[in-house]
Specification:
The protein folds into 2 domains: 122 residues, 2-Layer Sandwich (Nucleotidyltransferase, domain 5); 110 residues, ATPase, nucleotide binding domain (Nucleotidyltransferase, domain 5, 2-Layer Sandwich). It has 261 residues and is of the alpha/beta class. Helix content is 30%, strand content 25%. It starts with 12 loop residues before the first strand and ends with a helix. Strands 1, 2, 3, 4, 5 and 8 form a 6-stranded mixed beta sheet that branches. The chain has a 5-stranded mixed beta sheet with strand order 11-10-9-14-15.
């Protein structure tokens, strides 16, 4: 920035959208506190969830709010996202692969947009506003659900698309044995599942040496049943933001992207 360029204050608000296989949810976000500033709206995900159909639903959702025209939009998407482009597709149509999600959303809404992997959005929200707020260094956020999602934030900067649920550990794709779905599928008790989590997290901490691990996903509400059973050198804590994390994180990253333009 040159000395003649006027300083633009950081945005205090943005709009977050969480695109999932069953629903598309959105709300404006107060970036000063990391909270929704209005009730979230949910619209069922169209089937098939093609780019045109999803874009139309996103536009409908945004239009249901009275937003200032310069408000940035952040979108979480269930895929690896490289520079706005989907490189995979989970629970949406395969025609998204190779599609510029950022461009599709921007065109449909007429607004500046930014697309981000869904686990990255939720994890970034935890790092900035939630369980890892104020922590420097390497923060790893892991969501335990149908699979294992991961998000790596280093000194406040997101390292995107880590996909650490797919580490091969003892000859297995990690999430096939340590995800919450494996606990339910195999009817594991908490001690049995914790033994698998212990193996998973020990490998991850040996690779990345995080300063803090945050555990999210629906099962984190029962954290007292399994986190105390783990013996790690890294502090490990439950996530705080729950269902709003994706929307908040997407909005925060979108506003950050606009501020850096």
């Amino acid at each position: 920035m040159s000395e003649h360029t006027p300083h633009r204050p950081a945005p205090t608000g943005a709009f977050g959208i969480d695109i999932g296989g069953s629903g598309i949810k959105g709300a404006p976000v107060d970036l000063l506190v990391g909270e929704l500033s209005a009730d979230r709206v949910r619209i069922p995900t169209p089937q098939p969830a093609t780019p045109d159909a999803v874009a139309a639903t996103v536009a409908e959702l945004v239009d249901s709010f009275h937003l200032s025209p310069d408000l940035a939009i952040g979108v979480t998407f269930p895929a690896v996202i490289q520079h706005g482009v989907a490189r995979s597709a989970a629970n949406v149509d395969d025609s998204w692969i190779g599609t510029d999600v950022t461009q599709v959303v921007s065109k449909a809404t007429g607004r500046t947009a930014l697309a981000v992997n869904d686990a990255d959005a939720a994890g970034y929200a935890e790092a900035r506003y939630g369980a890892a707020r104020g922590r420097d260094g390497v923060v790893l956020v892991v969501t335990l659900g149908t699979g294992i999602g991961s998000c790596l934030v280093v000194d406040g900067t997101l390292v995107p698309n880590t996909e650490l649920g797919h580490l091969e550990i003892d000859g297995h794709d990690a999430e096939s044995r340590a995800a919450d779905s494996a606990r339910e599928r195999e009817d594991l008790d908490w001690e049995q599942w914790a033994a698998r989590l212990q193996r998973y997290f020990r490998v991850v901490e040996d690779l990345f040496w995080p300063d803090l691990i945050v555990v999210g996903g629906g099962v984190s509400k029962k954290h007292e049943k399994f986190l105390p059973l783990l013996d790690l050198r890294t502090p490990i804590v439950p996530a705080m933001l729950r269902n709003s994390a994706g929307i908040v994180g997407a909005a925060a990253l979108a506003a950050q992207g606009v501020a850096l333009d």
